[in-house]
Design goal:
With 354 residues, the chain is of the alpha/beta class. 38% of the residues lie in helices and 19% in strands. It is built from twelve helices and 14 strands. The strands form three sheets. It has a ten-stranded mixed β-sheet, with helices on both faces. The longest helix has 16 residues. The radius of gyration is 20 Å and the shape is globular.
């Protein structure tokens, strides 16, 4: 029996999580679910977005299925108490250093993409993002009175971008293994950042162990342009935390909707946290109109990467393809002639397709 920590979170999180659990339950797998509060709902109940008990639950589980966190009403809280700190805290506590985000444009959704169909039809891109380093976690950071320069005496904010060679090496190995026999694009800003120069030098060093992979280096501004100019030329893209945060959301829109983008965050043991790439969307929470497919596909990634249940993962992915082929659509991916369905109805359709 595999233990799954279920952390639905805020906004539409509980609605889409219910659909993923519905699908997993229909597969009759040896899974045990334990639910807990994170994010804004945890702050409201316990005074903290990530209670210590939830961290312990996550650590003792085989995998974490995560919904979404965030709510505008908590924006005035100190940063360490805001709902978003729950996901950052879990990444750090579990050592989730690699984020896998597949961007797949299903044939039925080419018209939903913001790009021309010929640019995205057949798109199957994997973005590998380093998740526990970079400017998000680098120290020192904070606010202070500027000690020098043109604005000396004024308040300023500062964050530190940093990467150690071993950090880059371990994400490099993940990316090269994912790109075996394919084309790997490593994204940096080595022309102006010392951190990026260390990144590039390390990628070149590790590449010598993977002669089957074609390595290309790309500055982040050019990478952003190529994702909308010729995305199908990229098989696998690897980059740091900050650039990856931005580029993965850009890649999501190539697929028709960020509501289609699943995500896996893994540590060195293969334990992972699986979540949709979209946010909590508090403006539509409780309306039963959210797209649950990213959450359902994240559950499939959980089965594949942390639980070793490849056959079950493929069944879910095939069921999603089937409901799209049948014309079922939530509002974010709606097109003319399709069958507009609610969040729960989309979940039911996936179960029926199984």
């Amino acid at each position: 029996m595999k233990k799954i920590a279920v952390l639905a979170g805020d906004g539409i999180g509980p609605e889409i999580m219910a659909q993923a659990l519905k699908v997993l339950t229909a597969l009759k797998l040896p899974l045990e679910f334990e639910e807990a509060l994170v994010g804004g709902v945890a702050y409201a109940a316990f005074g903290h977005p990530l209670p210590a008990e939830v961290v312990e639950l996550a650590k003792k589980s085989d995998a974490v299925l995560f919904g979404a966190v965030g709510d505008f009403k908590y924006d005035s809280l100190p940063r360490h108490l805001r709902p978003e700190q729950a996901i950052l805290g879990l990444r750090k506590a579990l050592g989730l250093f690699v984020n896998l985000r597949p961007a797949i444009c299903y044939p039925e959704l080419t018209a939903a993409s913001s790009l021309k169909p010929e640019l995205v039809s057949g798109l199957d891109l994997l973005l590998v993002r380093e998740l526990t380093g970079d400017v998000y976690f680098g120290q020192p950071r904070g606010k202070r009175i500027s000690p020098d320069g043109a604005f000396a005496g004024a308040e300023e904010g500062f964050d530190t971008m940093r990467y150690a060679v071993p950090e880059v090496e371990r994400i490099a190995h993940v990316a090269f293994k994912a790109a075996m026999g394919k084309h790997l694009v490593s994204v940096d800003k080595a022309n102006v950042l010392e951190t990026s120069q260390v990144w590039r030098d390390t990628m070149i060093k590790v590449s010598k162990e993977y002669p089957e992979v074609t390595l290309e280096h790309m500055y982040v501004d050019n990478a952003a342009m190529q994702l909308v100019k010729a995305p199908k030329k990229i098989d696998v893209m690897v980059t740091g935390n900050l650039f990856g945060d931005i580029l993965s959301d850009e890649a999501a829109m190539l697929t028709g909707s960020i509501g289609m983008l699943a995500s896996a965050a893994l540590n060195e043991k293969g334990q992972g946290l699986f979540e949709p790439s979209h946010g909590s969307a508090p403006d539509i929470a409780g309306k039963n109109i959210a797209n649950p497919l990213a959450q359902i596909l994240s559950a499939a990634m959980m089965l594949r990467y942390s639980l070793g249940m490849e056959e079950a993962a493929v069944r879910i992915e095939n069921a999603v393809k089937k409901v799209l082929a049948q014309g079922y659509r939530t509002g974010d991916i709606r097109s003319e002639g399709c069958k507009l369905v609610s969040c729960s109805e989309m979940g039911d359709a996936v179960v029926a397709a199984l």
